[in-house]
Amino acid sequence: MSKITIVDVAKKCGVGVSTVSRVINGHPDVSAKTRERIQAVIKETGFVPNDSARNLKRTDAKCIGVLIKGVTNPFFSPMIDIIEQEIDRQKYALVLRHVEADQEEADIAMELETEKRLRGIIFLGGGSEQSRAKLSGLKIPVVFSTIGASYLEEEGRAEFSTVSVDDRLEAMHMTQYLMNLGHKNIALITEAMGRRSVGHLRLEGYKDAYIERGMQVDERLIFYVNQNMEHFSVENGYRTMQRMLSSGLEFTAVFCATDLLAIGAMRAIADAGLKVPEDISVCGFDGMEIGRYINPRLTTIRQPLDQISRETVKLLFDIIESRSSHRHITFPAELSVGESTSKYYEK
User: Fold this and answer.
1) In a domain, 342, yes or no
2) Dihedral sign, CA of 249, 177, 209, 265?
3) What is the secondary structure of 112-140 as a DSSP string?
4) 231 lies in which domain range?
5) Beta-ladder partners of 143
6) Whether 82 and 128 share a structural domain
7) Residue 190 domain flag
8) Three-class SS of residue 185?
9) Is the pLDDT of residue 257 over 50?
10) 3-class secondary-structure state, position 186
């Protein structure tokens, strides 16, 4: 009989892997009904969480920590699935920890390093707030996954590894695609620039496309999401688009920094009595599976999450076992053209 994994439990319960993890780790942000269902399936299947398995053989201390920034972001779910399988294949245990928006990953990593006696750490999402001093304080290998070297270039590149796409370059490609369709007034939805982030890199790529064409960037068409909400959520995309439509500014296309923002923006456009892409073309970034099933199908930049996930774990173990020094690996992304964008003919 094959081993029951956290992914199997999530599928049986009809919830995401992150929800099961929150129940296992005692997080309070899960409804009582969902919590009871998950606990019942865990009991029924005999599933033993990796962290619990670690406690049964504490002297081994063969654990890898995975810190996830963005508790509600389903973008990471398929990555967690693959990362857990790859870590398990190495006969190590996974210690999964969700990081709230106002928490600093480096501080939590340092706590986990001692508490769980980790052999290595993978950061998923976030990452920009770590200071070089705190990163240097970690005595174990660190790999930032979906976070490129350019994102953390000021933090001492030799002290950590990265596996990602080139967010800035791929954002430029998406903006150029919209321009090739005839769009000039292209709006952007991203996160505020109070910190260096993937949202910042995608903004830079958007601007690069205008500079490359010798066109002026209209700063008024750059809209920042509400910082008091989950930055890259569907709701934030919806509310930001409502603000854009009421601004009186003219734009024929919108590039959203993530697919979730794009999905929310499309709903707001429909609720305003407009159509995508007839009135406004909309595109996203990430290539989440849900984008293939909404109507119209979303045009997006698809990240190769399977390759990124597997290479992240491989690289971490190569460093742990002294087969490699720290490296920065960049995968090409793919422009996936859906039905949410169309040619613009100037009236």
Assistant:
1) no
2) positive
3) HHHHTT-SEEEEES--TT--HHHHHH--S
4) 167-302
5) 122, 161
6) yes
7) yes
8) coil
9) yes
10) strand
